[in-house]
Q: What sequence folds into this?
C-alpha cells in the first residue's frame, strides 16, 4: 500500500471502528498539543494501551471517542448518511467522515486556504516531533498522511474524489463502480447543509468535554 487512499482503507478496515475525519479531530483539539496527539492517534490505541500515555494525551484519546459517539448517534448524521447509502450501503458513515472533512476544510468561518495550510503543517510538525512515542501502526500511516497532505487536500473536490473512489476500489464488499463520488456531487448542497447544521453542535459538545 503506497498511495493515500489505500492507507485510508488500511485505517478503516483493519482497525475496528476507526474514523477517517482526521481534520475534524485535529481541529476539535483546539490547539492543545497533547490533546491533538491523543485525538489523532486514538484509533490506533486499543484497550488498556491508553494507560501508556500521559494524562493530557489520554484526554485527547478519550475526546476522540466522545466525538465519534456524538457523531454516530446524532440524528442529522443519520439522515445525511442516507444520501450516500445507496452507493455504499451500511458503510456510509465512513464516507460521510470524508465528506464532512471537505466541508470543514472549505468552511470560511473556520479556515481560509492559507490558515488551513498553516494548520495542517503545524499538526504534521507536532506529530513528527513526537513520532517515536506514538503507536507503531500510526507511525506506518503518518508518512503517507504528511506526504499526500491529507488534512489540506480535503479542501479540493479532486482530493475528496480520490479518497472516496480509492476506498471503493479497495473495499472487498463494494463493487469497483459504486457511484459514491456521483452521490457526493448529486447531494452536495444537502450534505453541506447537514454539515452546517451539525458541526456547531459538535463543536459546542466538545467544549464541554475539555
A:
Amino acid at each position: 500500500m503506497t498511495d493515500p487512499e489505500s492507507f485510508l482503507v488500511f485505517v478503516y478496515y483493519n482497525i475496528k471502528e476507526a474514523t477517517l475525519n482526521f481534520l475534524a479531530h485535529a481541529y476539535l483539539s483546539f490547539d492543545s498539543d497533547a490533546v491533538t496527539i491523543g485525538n489523532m492517534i486514538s484509533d490506533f490505541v486499543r484497550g488498556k494501551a491508553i494507560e501508556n500515555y500521559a494524562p493530557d494525551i489520554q484526554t485527547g484519546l478519550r475526546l476522540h471517542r466522545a466525538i465519534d459517539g456524538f457523531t454516530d448517534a446524532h440524528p442529522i448524521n443519520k439522515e445525511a448518511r442516507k444520501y450516500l447509502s445507496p452507493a455504499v450501503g451500511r458503510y456510509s458513515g465512513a464516507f460521510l467522515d470524508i465528506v464532512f472533512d471537505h466541508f470543514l476544510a472549505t468552511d470560511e468561518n473556520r479556515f481560509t486556504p492559507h490558515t488551513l495550510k498553516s494548520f495542517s503543517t503545524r499538526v504534521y510538525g507536532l506529530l513528527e516531533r513526537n513520532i517515536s512515542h506514538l503507536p507503531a501502526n500510526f507511525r506506518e500511516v503518518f508518512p503517507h498522511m504528511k506526504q499526500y497532505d491529507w488534512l489540506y487536500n480535503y479542501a479540493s473536490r479532486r482530493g475528496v474524489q480520490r479518497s472516496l473512489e480509492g476506498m471503493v476500489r479497495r473495499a472487498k464488499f463494494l463493487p469497483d463502480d459504486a457511484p459514491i463520488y456521483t452521490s457526493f456531487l448529486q447531494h452536495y448542497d444537502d450534505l453541506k447543509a447537514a454539515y452546517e447544521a451539525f458541526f456547531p453542535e459538535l463543536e459546542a459538545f466538545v467544549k464541554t468535554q475539555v
Notes: The chain is about 70% helix and 0% strand.
